[in-house]
Amino acid sequence: MIGTIVAIIVVSLAALYWYKRLFPKSWRHLLTKLGITPKPAPLPSSSSSCGSCNGCDRSNGGCH
User: Fold this and answer.
1) What is the DSSP letter of 24?
2) Is 34's pLDDT higher than 90?
3) Taking residues 27-33, what's their average pLDDT?
4) Is the pTM of this model over 0.85?
5) CA distance 38 to 28
6) Residue 14 φ/ψ region, left for φ over 0, alpha for ψ in the -120 to 50 degree band, beta for the rest
7) Which end of the chain is more exposed for a tag (fewer CB within 10 A), N or C?
8) Where does this protein have compositionally biased stretches of type Low complexity (predicted)?
9) What residues contact 54, with CB distance under 8 A and at least 6 apart?
């Protein structure tokens, strides 16, 4: 009985994994419908050519 339950859980998790991999757009839509929205990736700051470099010297045209 326990073996059957474990097998059902493993098969269900595998099905979810492959659904997510094969249909990413539908997966995101499903998560949005359920109210579980994934965090968007942070966008890099394009205002500085050096990014987060503390030793940026713009007079020389670059970092360090």
Assistant:
1) H
2) no
3) 87
4) no
5) 8
6) alpha
7) N
8) 45-64
9) none
